[in-house]
Amino acid sequence: MDYILKLPEYEKVIKSIKETIITNIVLVGQVPAPTFFEQNRTKVILERMSELNIDECSTDSYQNPIGIIRGTRRNMPPLFLVAHIDTIFDEDVDHNYIVKEKYIAGPGILDNSAGVGILVSLPEIFKKLNLHFKSDIVLAGVVQSIGRGNLRGIRHLLRGWSSPIRGAICLEGCDLGRLNYYSNGMMRCEIICNISSKQGWENNFRPNAILVLYEVINRILKLRLPQKPQARVIFGKISGGVKHGKIALTAKLGFEIQSDSEAMVKEIYNDIRDIVSGISHERTVDLKLKTVSSTNPARLQFSHPLVKQTISVMKTLGIAPASENSESELSIFLANDIPAVTLGMSKGDNYHLENGSLEIEPIFTGIAQVIGVLLALDSGECDG
Q1: What pLDDT band is residue 327 in, cutting at 50, 70 and 90?
Q2: How far apart, in whole angstroms, are the C-alpha atoms of residue 272 and residue 234?
Q3: pTM (2 decimals)?
Q4: Is pLDDT of 315 > 80?
Q5: Which of 120, 191, 258, 344 maximizes the CB count within 10 A of its CB?
Q6: What is the extent of the structural domain holding 9?
Q7: Is the dihedral of CA 171, 173, 178, 183 positive or negative?
Q8: Where residue 250 sits, what CATH number does that domain have?
Q9: Parallel, antiparallel, or unpaired for β 167-174 and 79-84?
Q10: Is 384 within the bounds of a domain?
Q11: What average pLDDT does the chain have?
Q12: Would you give the distance in Å from CA 289 to the centre of its chain?
């Protein structure tokens, strides 16, 4: 475990190429990449990887940009480093990034332009640290991850990969200290209410779409959810109407069902479907329940060597590990029996806002932890 002792030294060397890392984050981040429209960002990623002369650089059939650094032992399964390249911001949002002494600011910086920029920087970092690996290292940006993307990029990448995969690290912009190694079952849904303007109601007695959804929420809140298996319904978004003095004829509710039991997620979904059907019938309104995305529960145990080695790496670098459920690319690796963790690269503010900001100084510690975990994987200490 000599690499553990070298991690503070690695951190200093990584900091010496600070400008390169910041440049890659900005170059990636200033190219809009809303889900389903990541093509331009994919081109930038491939260009940066090609300039570093890595062994292979291309896209798969789903347009995930992939770079491969060949290892010294061709019979060993590869190790994956993954970052999703899409963000929640449309192309009409100004993607001009601001670089100050202590932070970088711009839309999508935390989720997940910083993670992608660091992924692109890794070949240069490996070279600077004079690191060579036994396994092939696969650097993969994945498309169509968030929201309606439903993790399609990583699903397709793993489905089409012909050989076994030894392990994986998922990179997220923040928060430093984040250690995800399990994923709950999740179903992300929308309920859409439409009130017909041609149904013969007098204007004063026409149902209000927002109030209809309010009734849906109240009935869902009356559901009795168990403490074991744990389960909850999170109401995350609601929108509707056109102006203050007009009855809302359309409204939309976004929510997520979460549980560590796949069966419980389905049971709660069926209960909500019955609520929606009942209110639609009783109020004579058009209510539709749609599933946006879903994942099944999967996890590593805390005793798994990958989790234990990751914690050891983090503590060596003075990082306090914080673990919670994550439904990111991690869930797809774990569902395919591939040991994986998700790590945060730095600290920041205004996570999903246009003025999101990423602190520069912690980035180097965040990258050093990735190097440490990658070396632990490559050494075989995390095979379990």
Answers
A1: confident
A2: 13
A3: 0.92
A4: yes
A5: 120
A6: 2-183+297-379
A7: negative
A8: 3.30.70.360
A9: parallel
A10: no
A11: 95
A12: 24
Dihedral over Cα of 341, 345, 346, 352: its sign? negative
Asked whether the bond before 286 is cis by omega within 30 degrees of 0, the reply is: no
pLDDT at 298: 95
With respect to residue 10, please indicate whether it lies within any of the assigned structural domains: yes
- For residue 283, count CB atoms less than 10 angstroms from its CB and return exposed for 0-12, middle for 13-18, buried for 19 or more: middle
What 3 state SS string does the chain have? CHHHHHHHHHHHHHHCCHHHHHHHHHHHHCCCCECCCCHHHHHHHHHHHHHCCCCEEEECCCCCEEEEECCCCCCCCCEEEEEECCECCCCCCCCCCEECCCEEECCCHHHHHHHHHHHHHHHHHHHHHCCCCCCCEEEEEECCCCHHHCCHHHHHHHHHCCCCCCEEEEEEEECCCEEECEECEEEEEEEEEECCCCCCCCHHHCCCHHHHHHHHHHHHHCCCCCCCCCEEEEEEEEEECCCCCCCCCEEEEEEEEEECCHHHHHHHHHHHHHHHHHHHHHHCCEEEEEEEEEECCEECCCCCHHHHHHHHHHHHCCCCCECCCCCCHHHHHHHCCCCEEEEEEECEECCCCCCCEEECHHHHHHHHHHHHHHHHHHHCCCCC
- Short-list 175, 14, 25, CA closest to 105: 25
Of 245, 262, 295, which closes a domain? 295
Which of 295, 330, 364 is the C-terminal boundary of a domain? 295
Q: What is the pLDDT of residue 170?
A: 98
What is the Cα–Cα distance from 28 to 364, expressed in whole angstroms? 18
pLDDT of residue 2: 84
Q: What is the 3-state secondary structure (H, E, C) of 25-75?
A: HHHHHCCCCECCCCHHHHHHHHHHHHHCCCCEEEECCCCCEEEEECCCCCC
Tokens 């670089």 found at: 99
Whether 57 and 123 map to the same domain: the answer is yes
pLDDT in tens, 144-194: 999 899 999 999 999 999 899 999 999 999 999 999 999 999 999 999 999
Please write the tens of the pLDDT for every residue from 197-214.
666 565 557 799 999 999
